[in-house]
Amino acid sequence: MSKKLLKEVKNYKELCEFFGAIPCDGGNARKAQLEQLKTLGNFTKNKKGNGFKIYEKYDKPISPPKKISNRGLQKYVQALVINLLVNKKETKDSTISITKTKLLLEIGAVNENYALLKNRDNGAELLGYDDDVFIDVLRGSNMIGNRTCAIIDRALDYLEKNSFITVEKVQWVKKAMGSGSDKEQLCCYKEATEEEIQFVLDCVATVKEEFAKKYKKRTDEISNQWLFCTNNFELYKKKLKKLLLEKNICFMYEKLNIKISSQMSGVGLQSLTDRNTKSYKTQLNKEILESLLGSVDNYYNENHNLFKFPCRDEDGNLKKTIIGKEKIVEDDMLPLRAQDRYLEQSKEIIDLMINRLAHKITEEELQTKEQKLKEDKKNA
What we know:
The chain is α+β, with helices and mostly antiparallel strands. The protein has a domain at 1-64. Helix content is 49%, strand content 13%. It contains 16 helices and nine strands. The protein has helices spanning 12-19, 28-37, 74-87, 100-106, 112-117, 123-127, 131-139, 144-161, 194-215, 224-229, 233-244, 262-265, 274-303, 334-337, 340-354, 363-379; strands at 7-9, 41-45, 52-57, 95-98, 165-176, 187-191, 249-260, 321-322, 325-326. Strands 4-7-5-6 form a four-stranded antiparallel sheet. Strands 1-3-2 form a three-stranded antiparallel sheet. Helix 9 runs antiparallel to helix 11 (233-244) and helix 13 (274-303) runs antiparallel to helix 15 (340-354). The protein is elongated, with a radius of gyration of 26 Å. The protein starts with 6 loop residues before the first strand and ends with a helix.
């Protein structure tokens, strides 16, 4: 829906007269005044000529528009998030409802392979990687999932604190609609009720308590990272899924309802040009890729000569025996990340999941690999 035009003026001088301001000389003073005039009304400069279109004159001045961050990755992330909102402003209530994975994909932080494979149970097997390496790279501490979500969280937090946007976190569930062994063949996605949210949280607590009792640990020690390291993650997911399906829930996930704030809706936030959008996405993707690959090298170089392998006893506890000296190991992932196989495989996985120029894996390709694996196992 197009904006209703209030008045069109021929130049900057007439714009100032309309808002009751004294025109400034050119240069930075004029630029600063144009920003100040945006607190008095909603207007845009014509693409051709010196004129302006005025859409609204506010009853009282609004807060002056703040600037997005210009530091590190945030200058790309925040600009791309705003760009996404501005370009989808005609949607209902100027709101987008999106998962973090989809948002990461939209701004170019990851590629489509990551979205396709991050939650696939047999992803490592299909691509020929070790399970523990594959899971850690996608979901482990300070790796792809953890690192990219932290980047998004910082961007949204900054934009919300500075009144660019409002963010609402909403829990959704995938519900099974079928019956018997085909229960999950039919499904729907819906916003979770309070009862469904509590049920999922109770199921998670129940399964973690079971692992805590078995391994003589506190419940808060049964983290995803610990489950990955002790090769219990798949068993944990299997047990949790069984409980959730008692109420036909497959899993719960979070969506973000992001909206341009009321303070900014009249300021006339500008979208990036197509050229800048492409440039920002390319640079963001490149820097995230280089950062993750650098982290892999650092983990390996700092710890490769310290550990004896394997590093765990039969109860899953991290062994403290380290070549040359005794050292307490606080990071569960260091033994894995110090191995040659991790260095080789993790770099390939990171490139496959992040690099926007990487080979695009299709669902059909995965299904073909899956069928071949089944046949190989059957003939073995």
